[in-house]
Amino acid sequence: MKRRAKYNPFRTISNGIRNARLRTKILLSNMIIILLITTAIGSASIYTANYFLESNTKDLSAQIVHQVSDNIEYRAREFMNSTVYLISDQLLRDFLTERAEAVTEDNYAAYQYRVNYVLAQFASNNRYIRSIVIKNNKGTVYWWENKHQIQNELNVHSASQIMSQAEAELRSSGHEYVWTSSFRGEDEVSLTRNFIDLNHVNVHIGTVLINIDPNFFRNLKSDISYINPDNIAIFNQNDQVLVKSNFRQPERDALFGNGQSESAAANGAIRRIEGQNYLITQKQTSPSGWRVVCVIPMTMLKDHTRLLQWMILIFSALAILISIAISWFLSATTTKNIKLLEKNMRKVEEGDFQVRTDIMGRDEVGMLSVRFNFMVGRINELVNSVYKERIAKQQAEFQVLMAQINPHFLYNTLGTIKWFARMKGQSEIEKMTGSLFELLKSSVRRTSEFHTLAEEIMLLDNYIFIQKMGYGDELQIKFDIDERLLQCYVPYLSLQPLLENAILHGIEPSKGNALITIRAWRENERIYLVVEDNGVGMDEQKIEQIVNGRGQEDKRFPGMSSIGVRGVNERIQLYYGKEYGLLYESQPGRGTKAKIKLPYHTKLEEAEHIAAGYDR
Fold this sequence. Notes:
The protein is α+β, with helices and mostly antiparallel strands. The chain has helices spanning 9-18, 22-87, 90-97, 108-123, 156-173, 249-256, 298-349, 364-384, 386-424, 427-445, 453-471, 496-507, 540-548, 563-576, 604-611, and strands at 129-136, 141-145, 177-181, 189-197, 200-212, 232-235, 241-243, 269-273, 276-284, 291-297, 450-452, 475-481, 489-491, 514-523, 526-533, 581-586, 592-599. The longest helix is centred in the N-terminal third of the chain and has 66 residues, at 22-87.
């Protein structure tokens, strides 16, 4: 069962776009560009508006926090100074030191009443004071409280308990006073300080704890709707919450649930809480070390940019619609001339070479119209010359056929002569004809430019036999071939032209006993073929003439030239590059050595692959 191809939506869309009409492609590309540009501009505008609003809000909140910080420091110092009037009250110091009489269970109520009266007079000067608790060194506790501002009234037990916590906090701070959050769970700020003897400032006669309404520190006045006292929180030097903001309970728990400020939040940082972002700005006062934190929900900022965002979206939509209409009109106008040109091309396809198109302006389509008319004219001229070209081609094919018939005719004729010489008993003629027959057969029947070295040596044997019939014992041929190289592949007719050149140009002019040595050996991945004679030798000019074909033919041997040797060198370098080829070593009177350098190959496919240029 044929497996069904997996559906690829991207390929489907790509194929649909590729096969769409040009007008559709232009319109689609323009729409994509328009959408991208409009979206980029709109997004950048919205981002810029939000960025500047956020930046300005950060600056304003920083200024407000700075203002609140300075005011808090002033108010805390002012209130701290006001407590001096409390500890300087002589009557209150007498009660605490119990100079008149010791406090017992019987007179404690009277003492509490008197102290409560003194504390009430002090609290009447500051409406933000909620309660005051005093404890002397003997452990006696007195208190006063504004019952209209609290939920849980104090008693001896509760007053002693919160005073113990306040004293522990004071001792751990190492200072004469400490600001903390409420020790009784109320939303208030507590000031704990030592009750000192003004005559002996190093002598403590007790401890005083004053609980203050947090609104004492909330006096922020701002015309910005999203920066108000509800966004402000205050922490002491130990990062305990003194004044909490009026957030919803989940937001308050996320920001200040552990009673610690978010010190990790850098100034002007944005933090995400329960899916909502908040801008947090903070400043630490000096020298008290209090921290003022302003927390603004980002939704409040975005409300101010919502109108701007809608305006940007509306104008972007109008710009897109207008741009699409203009793009549709331009694409229709552009493709109109292209469709007309395509219609005329169809006529040419049907065989009407007389059609011409009107010049459609000076743009690219107009230039195509000019080229179209020129092309149709040229095609008409070429069609008229097709008949002449066909006749010339038929004549050329006939000549090629005749060129193929002539070698076969000579090949068959030599075979007839060979058999006729055998019938007449002419063995030498038969052998010469057979050798020539084998040489011609290898030329006619070969299918590749390469054959084995053994086959190359066999061709040399046939050629040598024919030459020895003319030279007799005056010509001696010696072979020094490494038998391991007989199966390697070499170019066809590599050695025969060198042997022929050695006989004609080296041995023949010497008119003496000729010795030609043919060698073959291997060095690494290369083989060397050498044809060496003991003839008359050559000078540099003659070597240049033979190898590169420069100069005239040797007049002593009319019809003989170096074209065979030059062909060997050119073929080798054509196959393998300039690194390989033919090299002559000779001096006048000292013989000549022709050396061929080839790559070593034992497979025909490798030799043909290299010769085709795939590895060069």
